[in-house]
Amino acid sequence: MNSRGDQRHANRKSEAPNETIAVGSVFQDAREVQTKFSKSFTTYFFNVGSEVRQIVDAWVTYLRQEKLWGNDDPLFPATLVELSAAQQFEAVGLARKH
Quick one: average pLDDT of 28-48? Predict the structure, then answer.
């Protein structure tokens, strides 16, 4: 990666998810997050209207403020499943994993 790419990575690494949403993209560094085929890439948001962006921003705010999750936690986590008293699996929350 050239120095320009290194600088872009350094800037994005320190950004909170809300800030990357405002920018309109998320840089996924394969050295820091699990990506398909261990490749680093930038994901860009399609311009689908402000409503969708508001929903994603509200979701990130919920994860950060209510669940106290940070930049290292998944944006779209797996469902936490446990065995109920009736001996059936049920969704009980969010798991801190992909």
Answer: 83
1 touches 9 (CB < 8 A): yes
3-state secondary structure of 89: strand
0.70 exceeded by the pTM? no
Residue 59 parent element (H or E): helix 50-61
Q: Would residue 78 be called left, alpha or beta, if left means φ above 0 and alpha means ψ between -120 and 50 degrees?
A: beta
The three-state (H, E, C) secondary structure of 25-51, written as one string: EEEECCCCCCCHHHCCEEEECCCCCHH
Residue by residue, DSSP assigns 3-28 as HHHHHHHHHHHTS-HHHHHHHTEEEE
Q: In the 8-state DSSP scheme, what is residue 32? A: T
From CA 43, how far away is CA 89, in angstroms rounded?
34
State which amino acid sits at residue 87.
Q
Q: For the beta carbon of residue 17, count every other beta carbon within 10 angstroms.
A: 20
**The token pair that represents 42 in the structure block:** 């930038």
